[in-house]
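## retry 2 of 3
previous attempt timed out at serialization; input unchanged, resubmitting
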Amino acid sequence: MRRKLTFWRVAVVLLLVAGLFAIYRFALSEPTQSMRPHIARVEISGIIQDDTELLERLQKIADSESAKALIVSISSPGGTTYGGERIFKAIRAVAEKKPVVSDVRTLAASAGYMIATAGDTIIAGDTSITGSIGVIFQYPQVGPLLDKLGVSLQEIKSSPMKAEPSPFHEPPEEAKTMIRSMIMDSYGWFVDLVADRRKLPREDVLKLADGSIFTGRQALAVKLIDTLGGEKEIRSYLETRKVAKDLPIVEWTAPSKRSPFALFSLSGIAKLLGYDEFLPFDAPRQLGADKLFLDGLVSVWQVRDR
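## retry succeeded, writing output
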């Protein structure tokens, strides 16, 4: 009896493990509805960085015969210029095969707007925030703090421009000139991209590209977006591109978000309690933690504390 009881206990444990593994593999697979014709939707939220998983997901959508169109829903203040550039190019690769709509939600500024321009059309809400075309490079200055603590930093370097600008001392003018040259080169690339995608004269884009942000209504007036509205307007546009109006919209989410274990995350618990609307970005991102890890040139709109 004892041996039989042990056998069944082990069998039950193995069955549970196999079941959990099967559920996990199922969660990591593509959306279950993706085998039939549908409109794919991808959400891009929070700080934009180089995201290999997102690029691979966009490539799968481009190659999928079942995905007849793509909606890119954006709620982002921006991020790294390189991250935005890679996502922009990945979305344009999808647009070469099927219609793409950029759906501007609460906020699509800086690199978020850069990504939005990759769509064949941009649709935003009346009060959505967009724009903030520009590039920035920030670095802290901790020298005065170290002086108060009685700590000094000595350095020996191969050339004056190595490791400049430094957070430990005021940068020389040559370093400021070097960084400013990088910023203006990336800024010029961003302006040219907007001028090309929005079919606007470069001088007109330059007037808008002073870092200013716009509501959806204002953005429509200056031709930074095409239409005000939501899903109804998105479907109406796709219908003009011969995409059936009754096709279901299927969310193509990251594997981690499809995992059953995501239920125990902060966002998963908030969704269960009905408070997910109060978490437009992941909580760590809302608290600004991601900004601590942004290196190099960034295109990000920040609300400054007074």
